[in-house]
Design goal:
The chain is mostly helical and 347 residues long. The protein is built from twelve helices and two strands; from the N terminus they run ααααβααβαααααα.
Length: 347
């Protein structure tokens, strides 16, 4: 039987709660994105994905700052990533691009292709998150294998916004009203044919997430100037993002990052010395030691159920009682003193 645990100090509880509250806010942004997409507000849906990217970066920072990293937080973050960066972008695409009658995705082969692209995106994000969860201890601390879901979804959402902002009035996917602040690119207009490449982008993003291509982490840069430049752009990204301004600027830093370092990661000698962790265990676990799925009703091989445990406990209690009674009787036959009250009666 397990012992009762001591209550956690409230200050320590708040320390672990702080990053989880940020992750919860990220989940809310994901749900708001899906709701906005269903309601026909694609720009709002894309901005909510950007907000989820910001809070996803923030919860890890808060966890390290207050030393509040926990297994619960890690799993909660993984579920939030699935919703925000796997499901929400697919819903955004399906409810906007597929619903535009002027594009070749409302029916027929084009519609099927778009649906398959959305499915591939969701499955690849799910696969990547699951793979990362089981191989965390074996993954090098300086690089990612495959493009993180946060980066993939954030890049997709911000490009979606930038193209939407410069789609001319009357063209397919034209926004109902202007957004994103002043037009930094002037009178530039995006041709409608750009939207026909959305399935290609979905399949490409799915491949990058599920792949084992090496991508350096943000904090692995040695150059102080590079680090300062990156942090400055991250800061501007937070400011412009929450203000819903200048998506045409916000696309530049992550696009340069992913293009530059995807190439660097495949040819750099320092990066190539890291091998991706195995997808499946090298050896089979012994019987009864297999991983248990959280909602699995079946017990591991050889493990007793609750009713069996109750019967065993009752049997132990009964056996212990019989053992005590027999020993008391034997002692009583020798000396009456062991029985309570016997000395007082004799006196």
């Amino acid at each position: 039987m397990t012992r009762d645990r001591e209550p956690m100090n409230w200050k320590r509880a708040l320390r672990y709660l702080a990053p989880n509250l940020v992750t919860t806010a990220s989940l809310v942004f994901g749900m708001l994105s899906i709701a906005a997409a269903i309601e026909g507000r694609p720009a709002d849906a894309a901005w909510f994905i950007i907000y989820a990217v910001f809070t996803d970066r923030l919860d890890g920072f808060v966890a390290r700052l207050v030393r509040g990293t926990s297994e619960l937080g890690v799993q909660l973050d993984s579920f939030a990533d699935f919703l925000n960066f796997g499901l929400a972008p697919a819903v955004l695409v399906y409810t906007s691009v597929a619903a535009e009658p002027a594009l070749p995705f409302s029916e027929g082969t084009g519609h099927l292709l778009l649906v398959l692209g959305c499915i591939a995106w969701v499955l690849s994000a799910t696969f990547r998150l699951a793979r990362y969860n089981i191989t965390t201890e074996d993954i090098p601390s300086k690089i990612f294998f495959g493009v993180p879901t946060t980066l993939a979804a954030g890049l997709f959402a911000i490009w979606f916004l930038a193209i939407l902002k410069y789609t001319p009035e009357g063209a397919p996917m034209a926004p109902a009203e202007s957004f994103g602040g002043p037009m930094l690119l002037g009178d530039l207009t995006i041709p409608p044919g750009v939207w026909t490449y959305v399935p290609v982008v979905l399949f490409g993003g799915a491949f990058l997430m599920a792949s084992t291509l090496r991508v350096p982490k943000l904090g692995s840069m040695r150059s102080k100037w590079t680090t300062a430049f990156v942090l400055a752009n991250v800061g501007l990204g937070y400011i412009f993002g929450f203000a819903r301004m200048f998506p045409e600027y916000l696309v530049i830093p992550p696009t340069l990052w992913i293009v530059t370092f995807l190439i660097w990661g495949q040819f750099s000698r320092a990066a190539r010395r890291y091998a991706p962790p195995p997808l499946f265990p090298p050896t089979d676990p012994p019987p009864g030691r297999e991983p248990i799925r959280p909602e699995d009703d079946l017990l591991p091989e050889g493990e007793a159920g609750l009713e069996d445990e109750e019967e065993d406990e009752e049997g132990d209690d009964q056996g212990a009682g019989e053992h005590v009674s027999d020993s008391n009787l034997r002692e009583a036959a020798k000396d009456p003193a062991p029985f309570p009250g016997r000395d007082e009666q004799a006196g």
